[in-house]
């Protein structure tokens, strides 16, 4: 049996990618094989997407002709590398795409000798097609592999190519960023509740403010500082709020968060 696309690890990110690839018709369910150890996830993925699901990673490795997509936690990577070490692919050399935080190309290439490897860092908004993915290319890749990775990640949002030395910083910013922004939305809503708004309305106001601001910055290409200045009337409400943000070290907290997440990504790769 041969397939085109093999997914190792059908968790949050694996499913996000899989669902969009199927929805976009980039792969048909019959062309996909997924390996996943959790019985409840196996049943869900099979029912929801009508794809073949197995517990056997080696089956995915042997069957997937075009792409093997690695979406397990970085901590289980060495176990999987050992599991697949003795399997020789005589007739095909699939592109291996890894989204594992921190795991460098040289570890991936050592685990899959001679195979083309692309390291990628997507983020959870990929689930709704608004993801941000950075990719970097391994030594055995060519233009066709680059196009395939661009096609896959374009199905879930925007794609940029960076040098591998920047991948940990990408992880600290756009990979982990959706968590920081979620905390921002939650805290804004809490502020609204503290100021007397009902919870439901506070949540709606907070979310739409973040969404609308991001959309305005995106569409107008305005610098964030310019938009901030436009909102901020002399002696008005906004400057009173900004003054508190500065006092609390809001900018510095975000800068340090990205730096700490970058450092953790570096550690995971050791
Ligand atoms: N969650 C996020 O926002 C992002 C995660 N990543 C990376 O994606 C990878 C997956 O993360 P999530 O999807 O969040 O994790 P997850 O825990 O939701 O998914 C991992 C899946 O792998 C399965 N698994 C565990 N051991 C396995 C094995 N030996 N063989 C095959 N499958 C196995 C688990 O049962 C689980 O379903 C991680 O390496 C993470 O660094 C990258 C970008 C963003
Ligand atoms: O927290 C993590 O390690 C993963 C990588 C980027 C987002 N989530």
TrEMBL record:
Protein localization: Cytoplasm
Sites where the protein binds NADP(+): 8-13, 71-74
Group of enzyme by EC: oxidoreductase
Pyrroline-5-carboxylate reductase dimerisation domain residues: 164-268
InterPro entries: 6-PGluconate_DH-like_C_sf (IPR008927), NAD(P)-bd_dom_sf (IPR036291), P5C_Rdtase_cat_N (IPR028939), P5CR-like_CS (IPR053790), P5CR_dimer (IPR029036), Pyrroline-COOH_reductase (IPR000304)
GO cellular component terms, A-Z: cytoplasm
Swiss-Prot/TrEMBL catalytic activity: L-proline + NADP(+) = (S)-1-pyrroline-5-carboxylate + NADPH + 2 H(+); L-proline + NAD(+) = (S)-1-pyrroline-5-carboxylate + NADH + 2 H(+)
Assigned keywords, A-Z: Amino-acid biosynthesis, Cytoplasm, NADP, Oxidoreductase, Proline biosynthesis
Pathway it works in: Amino-acid biosynthesis; L-proline biosynthesis; L-proline from L-glutamate 5-semialdehyde: step 1/1
GO molecular function: pyrroline-5-carboxylate reductase activity
Superkingdom of the source species: Bacteria
HAMAP family for this protein: P5C_reductase
Functional note: Catalyzes the reduction of 1-pyrroline-5-carboxylate (PCA) to L-proline.
Protein name: Pyrroline-5-carboxylate reductase
Native species: Nostoc piscinale CENA21
Lineage of producing organism: Bacteria, Bacillati, Cyanobacteriota, Cyanophyceae, Nostocales
């Amino acid at each position: 049996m041969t397939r085109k696309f093999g997914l190792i690890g059908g968790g949050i990110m694996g499913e996000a990618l899989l669902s969009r690839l199927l929805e976009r018709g980039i792969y048909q369910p019959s062309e996909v094989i997924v390996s996943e150890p959790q019985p409840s996830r196996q049943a869900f993925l099979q029912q929801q997407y009508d794809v073949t699901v197995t517990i056997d990673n080696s089956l995915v490795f042997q069957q997937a002709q075009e792409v093997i997509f690695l979406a397990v936690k970085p901590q289980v990577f060495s176990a999987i590398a050992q599991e697949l070490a003795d399997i020789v692919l005589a007739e095909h050399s699939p592109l291996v795409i890894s989204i594992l935080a921190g795991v460098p190309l040289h570890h991936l290439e050592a685990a899959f000798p001679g195979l083309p490897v692309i390291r990628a860092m997507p983020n959870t908004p990929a689930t709704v097609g608004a993801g941000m993915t950075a990719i970097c290319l391994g030594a055995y890749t060519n233009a066709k592999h680059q196009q395939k990775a661009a096609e896959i990640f374009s199905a879930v949002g925007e794609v940029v190519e960076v040098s591998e030395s920047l991948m940990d910083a990408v992880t600290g910013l756009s990979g982990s960023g959706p968590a920081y922004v979620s905390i921002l939305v939650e805290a804004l809503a809490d502020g609204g509740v503290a100021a007397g708004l009902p919870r439901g309305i506070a949540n709606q106001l907070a979310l739409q403010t973040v969404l609308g601001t991001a959309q305005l910055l995106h569409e107008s290409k305005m610098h964030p500082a310019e938009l901030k200045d436009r909102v901020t009337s002399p002696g008005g409400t906004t400057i009173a709020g900004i003054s508190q943000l500065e006092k609390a070290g809001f900018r510095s907290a975000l800068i340090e968060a990205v730096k700490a997440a970058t450092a953790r990504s570096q550690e995971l790769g050791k």
